[in-house]
Amino acid sequence: MTADELTTVDGRPALRMERRLAHPVEEVWRAVTEPERLSRWYPFAVVALELRPGGAMRFDDGEGTVMDGTVVEVDPPRRFSFSEHAPEGMHRETDDLVRIDLEPDGDGCRLVFTHVFDDRPGAASYAVGWDLCLRMLGTVLDGREPDWPTPPQGALEERIDALGLGAGRVEDGPGGPVLTVERQLTRPADEVWAEIAGDRAGNAAGDGVPEGLLVPGVAASGRTEAKPPELFEYAWSADSADAGRVRWELSAGTGHGARLVVTQTGRAADRPLLEAALPAWERRVREVGRRVAGLEG
């Protein structure tokens, strides 16, 4: 049994993943709460764990990133939850929460893994990683040493589609309506820029707009800012008048590839034009995601 969904907990995005394990609850409880076992399938090695509410946790990825946490709930053998504090240098207003719920299921166990966070567009990336971790949990329970495979090509794109993360939106901003489409990608910004702009040197020579940054129905009227591979902005027009800006931005995202954010601003009267353009931008950004993942558009 596998079931994944994107929901909310206390108003925050939450990834809920359900798995059936062919091991009794008590055995799974030990695998998720004993540091030596937890470290074998969790993304970070758990180097400290006080198994009590309020107890301290410490994680170390072995590559220089150390993260602290706090035990939130301990209800053996049914629930274990803890918060993860952001590593130093990562700006995050609230801690992530991880909750593991267990219940008997015949001669096995039903596990519900919930990750609560703030970065909704990053949910697909988290889902790919957690799915792999939960598979490694099964390996540990089977008494074998985990052999961490690389996620299959296209796994992130499949999760984005399955979790409904490809949808954009048109909202009212301070200066008028704003269209936004956001997507986590699998490759770094310089490689993404090369794919969408056809420029592997990261340049933006001339005054034109690369064809890969356009969609039908949105008339570009000249670039306004270019700092590839992180940013490219151009003006668009309606009825021969300047209507607003289209902006492509590439940032670090979840750290496993660039985050692409495309915005289009307009005047109050242009909201119908932005709503009409939204499906084209959603398709364009999806094409970018699939291309950089090595898939067909």
Automatic annotation (TrEMBL):
Pfam families: AHSA1. It comes from the Bacteria. InterPro entries: ASHA1/2-like_C, START-like_dom_sf. Transmembrane segments: none annotated. Residues 23-141 form the Activator of Hsp90 ATPase homologue 1/2-like C-terminal domain. This is SRPBCC family protein. Belongs to the AHA1 family.
